[in-house]
Amino acid sequence: MKIDIKFGSKALSIQVADEPTTTLGDLRTAIAEATSVPPSLQKLMGKPNLKDDTKLLSELGIKEGTKLMLIGATATEVLAANTESQAKEEQRTKRIKNLGANFWLLPAFSGFMADPYVGGKGRPLEGASAVEALTILDAIMSRINPVEGNASILQAVGGAAAGLNPATLAQISHTMLPNLSMPHRRALSKAHMVIRKATELANVLASVQEPAGVPDAVAQVIAAVRNCSEGEFVLVPSGWVGQQDHTILYLLLTRVSVSHYSVILVNRTANDYHPHLPTADKIKTQPCIRFDRIPEERVLDEAFWLVTLSLWMRANDPENRSEYCRGEVLYDCLLPWLTEGVAAAAGQASSPPRSSSAASSSVESYYLPNLTAAAHCDPVASLPDLGSSEAEEESVSGKEHRFATTARSESSAMKSLVTAFTFLVRSYVAKSDPLESPVTMTTTLKHLKMALKYECYLRAAEDLVTIAQRHVQHHEMILQQNKKKPPAAPPKGSSQAVPLPTSPATTATAVATAAATSSHSLTNIKQAIDQVLAAGADPRQNSVTLSLLASALTTRDFVKSPSNHIITDVAMFAQGKFVLLYFSAGWCGPCKKIAPLLRECYDRLAARLSQVPSNSTLRGASETAPGIECILASCDKSQAEFDAYAETFPKFLRLTT
């Protein structure tokens, strides 16, 4: 008996014995011989209940010519994936700790927290990229859903839920998420993993600088969609960034059968394509639109993804943006092509002409406006919650439709992402617990959105606390120094007016008053810091310490002394010293110009620190004077270039590979 198996881009014919006793386990063994994919790592799709290997093929409805789909990986690929996932986890940790600016200055933060009140202000309030939005949501969710608990999931082939054990899920906790049920914990963790994988894809796409790199990046997106298991999701950033317009939206894709997908477009911006609902004080929009039963060959079409992704990837080169990167390309060209013929095959009514005013007049108006008659777009069926604190349910034409306050197009990256995230959570809960009460799910999502905003505020507060603590330390040191300094006398021959003589008591009172005023301000700042810390802020988890830097070094990275000796324990070597990290390169003109100044500054700092008195706060708990080390981190293109440039700084340590 011959069974047709689709495995990635390959079409295989698997021969098994045509006997009444042939089981699913026998079929898996034959597949393993043809593909090298172990039976334990095989996931078969195309027939229901393909899990029990003792079941007879006849009981499962598998016969001559049956078509199945295989998702799996060989043992070698699993080992490579595990190794790669560890490297990706290191990169991810660095990304969420090094956001490039204080948290409250990131456009995605403003887009999430201040969108209704901000419009047309530009950066840093607007203009967040998909990478920034995804990274921020990952960073925030990692505080609710600890990263350590998901290490096993990263290594699971195909994103299977096997790693979601109760011990792992028990780590998901938050004061604003009380009494989470196991299905809710599982849904949160799985939705977070979709966000993390989307972040990796977005970083790959955003790193492309030359046209030659585009096909490889697009191929990674197609591979992620192709490998999506039935019932799982892939999130792909989309949108358009042109000369004037900046709109980020997201495509959620899920496999519904061996040869079909559902595509959900999530766009929170005001536009003429999504249904609108006028209310007493605002106009709301329906951000989620679902396209069902899209053929696999269309979803995996390279040209479709090349054009779709290039609409926002042109932003990778700000000097080469195009006015043709517009929303009309996506809505009027790409989506009609994607859904062409689907509605006709499903017997759907044709779509109405584009009209935002008709949104509340008929059921048919909820099909996406201005698509071809063949477009099958159902924004109502099985739509999860919008993921917005402003989202409400309105009854229109006898049906329930969810609408949300629109986001400014420049702030859409974060708003649309949170909408997509809560869509995922509701979808996963509905799959694992079909009897879930709508009221319970709505309450959980509201708590989740409050928790996300609370953690956003805390993350911003932690950055502020770090700055405030440095301010306090700096001014306390100045106050100590001023107590020991006599008042400065005017220089000889100066025309400066000589102050009237004052008594020693008056002078002491003035100095004490100034010190008390400054001390009072510092006390207020300290009290504010204590209050923020008591609220749960912990700036230590966001700070990059020398120990963290040392632990982040792989086996290929070394810190060497000027004499070219490898320093095995960087943290111990630099104990009691001030450590400066200097990122530079020999090809950088400005770096070469400041090199002499930096060398001189290093020598002067070392000399000054060696003379620090024993009672200085700079010593801390150490009895010896603090030293200083400067680590030169390479930005050169080759090891030879770095070695040559490092000779410019003969006293610096070197971070090299």
TrEMBL record:
One Pfam family linked to the record = Thioredoxin_8
Domain (Ubiquitin-like): give its ranges. Answer: 1-71
**Per its UniProt record, what SUPFAM superfamilies does this chain match?**
Thioredoxin-like, Ubiquitin-like
Q: Which PROSITE patterns match?
A: THIOREDOXIN_1, UBIQUITIN_2
Q: Which InterPro entries match?
A: Thioredoxin-like_fold, Thioredoxin-like_sf, Thioredoxin_CS, UBFD1, Ubiquitin-like_dom, Ubiquitin-like_domsf
Molecular function terms from GO: cadherin binding; RNA binding
The record's region (Disordered) falls at: 384-407, 478-503
- Gene3D superfamilies attached to this UniProt entry: Glutaredoxin, Phosphatidylinositol 3-kinase Catalytic Subunit, Chain A, domain 1
What PANTHER family does this protein map onto? UBIQUITIN DOMAIN-CONTAINING PROTEIN UBFD1
> What SMART domains does UniProt report for this protein, alphabetically?
UBQ
Name of the molecule in the record:
Ubiquitin-like domain-containing protein
